[in-house]
Design a protein that fits this description.
By secondary structure, this protein is an all-alpha fold. It contains ten helices and no strands.
């Protein structure tokens, strides 16, 4: 199902990255410069080409690396490593019913790896096909990959600027304004992915409780 969700995100991901680049161009060069947008696009090497390259590189990066970037953790980066704490702050989760369904939860509170494995096997797997779970999972993947793609673009342009700094100092200053906007956009997308990831974990918990409580007893 993960491959299906990522496949569904290819077009939205490209559109979101391209829209972010266009917004960065407008914020950097101003609306008055839009008639000269062709020259800006030419200097950047083509926004469409950059978008395609960044999306490709994003899919080539390991998922663990992207999770480390989003959650700023080198180990136990996934929100499911902390699902015991996350679900305690989600008002949708019926804590009493969850504890009745999963009485061994307190033993996992201090072990991140065990939490992730438990959540994946016993909570996520039974509800992975629920529309609500798939929706928030898809959103998490989209924002995660968009943030990564924008960061890749910013880093590539930064390297390009450094290589040309000796010859095009003034041009580099203009590009730095563009880079700042891209970094800010990457940060905002990362925050959106961070929140969606947490929501994904607790949504699965909520759906798990709802499904089990809706099953009539014999």
């Amino acid at each position: 199902m993960l491959k299906n969700l990522k496949a569904q995100n290819v077009a939205p991901l490209g559109l979101l990255v391209l829209s972010s680049l266009l917004l960065a161009v407008i914020l950097t060069y101003g609306v008055d410069e839009l008639p000269e947008l062709k020259h800006v696009i030419a200097e950047l090497g083509g926004l469409a080409a950059i978008t395609a390259l960044s999306v490709l590189l994003t899919y080539l990066l390991p998922a663990n690396m992207k999770h480390c970037l989003i959650y700023l953790r080198f180990s136990n980066a996934l929100p499911a490593h902390r699902f015991c704490r996350l679900m305690a702050f989600d008002p949708r989760v019926d804590q009493l019913r969850l504890k009745a369904l999963l009485p061994d939860l307190p033993t996992l509170a201090d072990e991140g790896t065990a939490q992730n494995i438990y959540w994946y096997r016993h909570i996520y797997q039974p509800v992975r096909d629920a529309e609500l779970v798939k929706g928030v999972h898809k959103a998490f993947l989209l924002y995660r990959d968009t943030a990564t793609a924008l960061l890749v673009i910013a880093l590539l342009l930064n390297v390009s600027n450094l290589a040309e700094a000796w010859f095009l100092f003034q041009s580099m200053q203009v590009s730095m304004g563009f880079l700042i906007v891209i970094y800010v956009e990457a940060l905002l997308m990362g925050l959106a992915a961070h929140n969606c990831g947490n929501r994904f974990v607790t949504t699965a918990v909520t759906e798990f409780v709802m499904q089990h409580c809706s099953v009539p007893s014999d």
